[in-house]
């Protein structure tokens, strides 16, 4: 049965636009901010190795599953899953997975916008030359001065959220497609400039060694983090890729397309690592700097080398663009769903959802200053507390949302999407969507979706529980 349905929200001009959009979604703060600092925290090469395995065996099959569900369903993730479940006689409750994903995407957007706001602040700072000749203490104080100030954080968070809502409200073709066509090529050029620059620091090999030196003793600690990050960085498990798949033209091969997106995303993460760590080492700093890595260590480096200010400016523009093209994909599944459900305009729905994410994001804003003592997920001597004010351990609001989404909701969503494509949808409809000619390749793809990816997610979950 040919699938010639079209989404009411619009359609990409070609499969290349899907690649652009999905890559825009995948490449973001995850690659440029999170990947380097997590690699620093979890032991360099061991983390990178785990991450690559998770991308190949779990992330990519789930991306394949999401894309094919979206393109077959041609609606928002929730309604696509609901109608496909009906078509194949499965339970309509499968769509709950898409609801969870949709909520997870909004939660991610809430903190993402705050961090993207930091890079807006740094564009201005670099532009004004504030970091020129700065010391390590000075850079730490500059970052602290930003995160301690709820008003400044709120201003940038608000601006970034407005920018995200603006593109989304304009629609799939006039908003998303048009801006992605400009943003993505710029992003790649900026990244290359940065890489070339890191060659000149004289510490390139040290950075390279840090990223690729495999120390097996460090694998255990980072495995769940690596799995969570594989989901996060590929944007899978929330329906972002699914909704983009629903705008994909029907005559294009999903397999090659998804592989391209996965490769580009991995390439950008590794390039970002290769570009950043030499700069970190050149400045004599430690790579395990946590979330502040990019905002503390890089300005020091940029502040103390020739053309550093310009490079710094380039860098933070790059980060902002990458974050922007990702943030729109977090909002789109919910916007598509509520437009379908309520029949209201995109603008009205976008405004409501953006306000929701903005409000939740204020929790992250405050978690860096006056709300730093509000702790969630506290494992204390007297047992587990979901929330406790002033607890020693536990996670602040920002860390809590990051943990809840990356480590729990995304893997659950991804597991359900893979199971749905693998076991609920009929083999024929999957074959029709994937249109892989070789029976061997088709069976391999199906096997990855049905068995390998779900087992991978489960193993990591169990490993974490029994740790
Ligand atoms: N993949 C994005 C990044 O790496 C984050 C993201 C997660 C985007 C989930 C959409 C959905 O920054």
Automatic annotation (TrEMBL):
Localization terms from the record: Membrane
SUPFAM superfamilies linked to this entry: SNF-like
Domain of life: Bacteria
Keyword Transport among UniProt keywords: yes
UniProt-listed CDD domains: SLC6sbd_Tyt1-Like
One GO MF term attached to the UniProt entry: symporter activity
Keywords of the record: Membrane, Symport, Transmembrane, Transmembrane helix, Transport
Pfam families for this protein: SNF
TM helices/strands, residue ranges: 12-33, 45-70, 91-112, 155-176, 188-211, 223-244, 256-285, 305-326, 347-370, 408-426, 438-463
Signal peptide residues on this chain, from the entry's feature table: none
Membrane topology: Multi-pass membrane protein
GO cellular component, one term: membrane
Main location: membrane
NCBIfam families named in the record: Na_transp
Protein name, as recorded: Transporter
Source organism: Pseudomonas segetis
């Amino acid at each position: 049965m040919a699938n010639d349905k079209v989404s009411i929200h619009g359609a990409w001009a070609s499969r290349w636009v899907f690649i652009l959009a999905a890559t825009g979604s995948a490449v973001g703060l995850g690659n440029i901010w999170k990947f380097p600092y997590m690699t620093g925290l979890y032991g360099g090469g061991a983390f990178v190795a785990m991450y690559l395995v998770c991308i190949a065996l779990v992330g990519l099959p789930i991306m394949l599953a999401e894309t094919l569900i979206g393109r077959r369903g041609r609606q928002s993730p929730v309604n696509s899953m609901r109608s496909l479940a009906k078509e194949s006689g499965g339970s309509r409750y499968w769509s709950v997975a898409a609801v969870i994903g949709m909520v997870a995407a909004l939660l991610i957007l809430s903190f993402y916008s705050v961090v993207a706001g930091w890079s807006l602040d740094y564009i201005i700072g670099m532009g004004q030359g504030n970091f020129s000749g700065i010391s390590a203490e000075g850079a730490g104080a500059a970052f602290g001065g930003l995160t301690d100030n709820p008003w400044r954080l709120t201003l940038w968070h608000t601006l970034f959220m407005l920018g995200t809502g603006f593109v989304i409200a304009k629609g799939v073709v006039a908003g998303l497609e048009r801006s992605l066509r400009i943003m993505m090529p710029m992003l790649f050029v900026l990244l290359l400039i940065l890489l070339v620059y890191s060659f000149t620091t004289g510490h390139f090999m040290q950075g390279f060694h840090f990223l690729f030196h495999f120390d097996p003793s460090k694998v255990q600690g980072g495995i769940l983090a690596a799995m969570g990050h594989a989901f996060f960085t590929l944007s899978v498990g929330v329906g972002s890729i699914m909704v983009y798949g629903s705008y994909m033209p029907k005559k294009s091969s999903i397999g090659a397309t998804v592989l391209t997106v996965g490769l580009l995303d991995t390439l950008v993460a590794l390039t970002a690592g290769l570009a950043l760590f030499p700069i970190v080492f050149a400045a004599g700093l430690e790579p395990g700097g946590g979330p502040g890595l990019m905002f503390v260590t890089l300005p020091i480096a940029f502040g103390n080398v020739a053309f550093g200010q310009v490079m710094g400016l380039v860098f933070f523009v790059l980060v902002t663009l990458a974050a922007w093209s990702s943030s729109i994909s977090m909002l789109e599944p919910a916007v598509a769903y509520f437009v379908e459900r309520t029949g209201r305009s995109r603008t009205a729905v976008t405004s409501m959802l953006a306000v929701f994410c903005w409000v939740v994001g204020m929790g992250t804003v405050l978690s860096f200053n006056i709300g730093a003592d509000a702790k969630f997920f506290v494992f204390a001597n007297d047992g587990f507390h979901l929330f406790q004010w002033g607890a020693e351990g536990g996670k602040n609001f920002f860390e809590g949302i990051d943990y809840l989404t990356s480590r729990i909701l995304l893997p659950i969503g991804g597991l359900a999407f893979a199971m749905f494509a693998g076991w609920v949808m009929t083999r024929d409809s999957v074959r029709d969507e994937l249109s892989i000619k070789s029976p061997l390749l088709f069976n391999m793809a199906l096997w990855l979706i049905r068995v390998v990816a779900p087992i991978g997610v489960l193993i990591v979950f169990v490993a974490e529980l029994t740790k």
